[in-house]
């Protein structure tokens, strides 16, 4: 049984299809108590801990075979970088903290890992790969082997409202269809009252599954897209 640590698991969109890979045990870290409770409901077989993921990583990384890091990115996002006051008030990771995590995984951790965050020109350690809207760092030479359901979907833009729905409701439904997952109830997170915000966190399930498979079998050539 391989032990997998997920730091910044949020509601678990990335984990949607992880159950298709046998022989894995998951420990998922989420600091927001409401999101952690939701995650437990969706994935009762996963160990979900409400704790500081960065501190836990530095203290317990040797207990895990694979580590996936997908921490909140609001302070790094291009949507807030032009407004310094808004950026200061946002929760989430600083770029310096993100670089420290990557250096720790590169220099100390002996298993396979990837770190995901948004694209930014300010990273001192350049990503190994860009996939969709994500920057990816890893100790494994990852390949672009995912297949999104809809490559034309604008993740960062609310489209025109459909009949009978507001723009916000339309955008929320588009996100749910894009991810192939609908949460059992609405949840507001990290001081953000937009119902779609939680759907914007983390990786698309196809990307997450592709990357995890490559960490498990880094020497195996992946020739086909995930269907």
Notes on the structure:
The chain has 227 residues and is of the alpha/beta class. 29% of the residues lie in helices and 15% in strands. The protein has a single domain (2-149, 200-216), classed as Rossmann fold (3-Layer(aba) Sandwich), CATH 3.40.50.150. It has helices at 33-42, 53-60, 78-81, 84-89, 95-107, 167-179, 205-216; strands at residues 2-7, 24-29, 47-49, 66-69, 112-118, 129-131, 134-138. A seven-stranded mixed sheet has the order 3-2-1-4-5-7-6, sandwiched between helices. Helix 1 (33-42) links the parallel strand 2 and strand 3. The chain is globular and about 55 Å long.
Keywords for this structure?
about 230 residues; alpha/beta; Rossmann fold; seven-stranded mixed β-sheet; 7 helices; disordered C terminus
- Structural class by secondary-structure content: alpha/beta
Question: In what range is the share of β-strand residues?
Answer: 5-15%
For the biggest sheet, the summary is: 7 strands, mixed
| Low-confidence blocks of residues | 77-91, 221-227
Global Rg = 17 Å
In whole angstroms, the N-to-C terminal distance is 26 Å
CATH topology: Rossmann fold
């Amino acid at each position: 049984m391989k032990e997998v640590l997920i730091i910044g698991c949020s509601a678990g969109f990335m984990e949607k299809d992880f159950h298709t890979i046998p022989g894995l045990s998951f420990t998922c870290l989420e600091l927001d108590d409401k999101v952690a409770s939701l995650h437990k409901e969706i994935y009762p077989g996963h160990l979900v801990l409400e704790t500081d993921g960065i501190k836990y990583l530095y203290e317990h990384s040797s207990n895990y075979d694979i580590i996936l890091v997908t921490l909140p990115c609001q302070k790094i996002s291009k949507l807030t970088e032009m407004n310094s006051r808004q950026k200061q008030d946002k929760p989430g990771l600083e770029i310096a903290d993100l670089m420290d995590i990557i250096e720790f995984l590169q220099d100390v951790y002996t298993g396979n890992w990837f770190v995901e965050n948004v694209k930014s020109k300010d990273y001192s350690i350049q990503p190994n790969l860009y996939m969709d809207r994500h920057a990816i760092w890893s100790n494994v030479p990852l390949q672009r082997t995912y297949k999104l359901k809809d490559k034309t979907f604008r993740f960062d833009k609310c489209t025109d409202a459909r009949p009978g729905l507001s723009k916000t409701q339309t955008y929320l439904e588009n996100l749910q269809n894009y991810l192939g997952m609908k949460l059992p109830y609405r949840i507001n997170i990290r001081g953000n009252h937009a119902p779609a915000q939680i759907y914007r966190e983390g990786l698309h399930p196809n990307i997450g599954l592709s990357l995890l498979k490559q960490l498990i079998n880094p020497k195996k050539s992946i020739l086909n897209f995930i269907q």
